[in-house]
Structure formats: C-alpha cells, structure tokens
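Render this sequence as a predicted structure.
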Amino acid sequence: MEWNQYANKRILVVCSREICYFSGNFFAAQMADAFERLGCDVTRLEFTVEDDLDAILKPLHYANFDLIVDVNSQMCHLEDDDGMVLDLIGGPFYNYIVDHPLFHYNSLHMPVGDMHAIVVDRGQKRYVDEYYPNVKSTVFMPLSANEALEQRKITDRPERILMMSTYVSPQKSYEVVENAPELLMKLQKGIIEIRTQNPYVTNEAALETVLQTQGFGVQSREEIDDRQFALLLNYCYPADTYVRNYFRDKATRALLSAGIPVVAVGDGWYDFQHSKEYLLQIERPCDFSLSYERIAKEHILFNNAPMFPDGMHDRVVGGMANHCAVLTDRTPFLEEQFENQKDLLFYDGAHIKALPDIATEMLLNPQLIYDMQEAGYEKYRKAHTWDHRAVQLLEEVYGSQPSTGTVI
C-alpha cells in the first residue's frame, strides 16, 4: 500500500471509555496500528475517568497533534482550570461514534474548539450535520475488522448460522419505555410503532413524524428548535434500544421456527425462550479482540442492525475478513459496495418472514457459501481494511491524492 503522503503526521489515538466486550479499546488500537503502518508518529492513550487524569493528561498539554481520535469519547468532557483539555492539547479532534449519535448528545455539544465526528451510517452524518452546529465536520467511515490467526472451520459444510450479539428481551426493553414520563412514553411508543413497521426509517425521521401528528405537550414541531429536537431524541433512546432488540428477537425466532440451527455468542441468551430452543447453541461472550477467532470457525455469520439503515455494522466486514459468508439486512450503502449472492447475501429487514427461506437456500447450496466466502474476503482486502480507514480519515482531514482506498 503506497500511501505515504501522511508519513510523520503526529496523531494521538485515545480510548477514554470502556464499551461492550472492550470493543472500543480494540478499535482504537487497530486505528493506531494502521496509522503507524502509514509512517505516522502515533501516541496512544487509554484511560477511564476513574484514573488519575492530571497525571495522565497534563504531560500532553500544548503538545499540538495533527489529529486526535477517540472512540465514543469521554475525553471531550474533560476540563481543568485553564479550559477544555482537548483545547489545551491542541489539534483537530474526531469523536469516532460507533453507535447512534443520539446517545452522544452531551458529547457533541461540548465546547471543544475543533470538534469533529466520525459516524458509521450516512443518515447519521446528515443528522449530526443538521443538529450539532458545534461539530465542524462529520465523516462517514464504517469500522473495519481483523483476520483471525487460525482460519479453520468447525464443520466442513455450512450447517448453522452464527450470531455474535447480546440478547435482551423486547419485553424487558419495553418496560423502560413504559416507565418514562407520560409525554416521553407516548413519543417513544410512536417511534416504536413506525420503526417496527419499517426499520429503514431513521430515529429522527420517526420522531419528526410523531411530533407532527401528536405534538409534544403544548408545543408543535415548529416551536421546537434544532437543539431541543436533538435533546428530545436523546431522551427517547429507549425506543431505539427496543427496536434493536425487537428485530434481533424476531429474526432469531424466525430462523429457529424454520428448523435452522443457530449459535449465539454473547450475553443474555440464556433468557431466550422458544419451543425449538434446542436448536439454539449458546456460548459465553469473549473479549472483542478474540471474536474474530470465533467467527473464523463458522461458515455463515448473521447480521441484524436496524440502528444503521444506511451504513455498515462491523459484523459485516468481520465476517468477510474471516472467510465467513455474511447474511445481512440490506442497506443502500451495502448495496453500493457489495454484490448480492456474490459477496454476501441480503434479506429485507422490513420482511423478516422471508429470512428463513433465504437462510435455507444458503444451507442447501454449500458451493454458493464457499464462493461467497472468498469473494467477500477479496472485497475486504481491496477496500475495507483498517489501513483503508486510516487513509480515508487522513484524506478527509488533510486532503487527498488520487487513490482507490476510500469507500465514499
């Protein structure tokens, strides 16, 4: 990879928040490694807010970096007597948001002088650009993945489907919605009604519709400014959580009801109940850095991600990087990047009833799976490695020379 125009750039890569299965630590480390392969001068910083922050951060004051990246940042909240810590360090700061920006309302409104965001969905980019004026620019850049050290399948033929995800019952999620104050409860139920019918409707579009039809107390939509709207969507976060769990539960039940064996790796699955749960093999979750070793052992990886209706969840590229055929809900971005029934296989997230037929077709056609595993891997190597992501970000920040390395 001959991208060396960014050599010697001084980059600070931070992990200031611990997220599920230590995935944030992993993503930060992979970005740092990729920047180093490009010849950049990389400083790594990992901490939590419980650490001795003065001892960790003061040595970096006035260091002035060419780029600062943090994953789901907590660092942007930190300040001392002289001002915001990121302003004291110096450099363009990019908050790499790996879920939905609605969860990061406070972070995106922090008074950091050179604040930017990275998101993994194109609709989320439009949302941040419209509702967060403090953010100078927003980059659409999906996550990447790693190749497992051992590439050996458990079975010779595809016999089951792997799910790498946490499970929370929709009923439990809905209790949180019902315990909200009455007005917020009604708004969230409106969002849920819209998005469970069509998962490709964004959270913000659903809230807009609900506000237009039922209002918010005595206020109409026209009386709510952009910042109030973004805050209101943040308050409605349990609706997004419910929709995520609703579709994961529905997809799993559809597969099991059709007699398709499923392996589920993650927290919460022991709470799942189904008449054919004997077809569900449950395994304990693992540290994110080990997840690719588990993916590499299977033939088919399932992805269901209604929170990214025009983006790409890292499970998609994680399967491809490990010669695992990916069965995923379609998004406009994925349809542009990959060819159906060649690089991966799509199902329609709004019509999960058809999912078992698609999964059965995969299991009955092992050659299709083998071909898909290799084609997907080639697409990963060609355009979706961590090196591609590092180059894309540097091109966004500092301009680009012609290359084939970006996904935009």
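Summary. The chain has 16 helices and 14 strands. The first strand starts at residue 10 and ends at 15.
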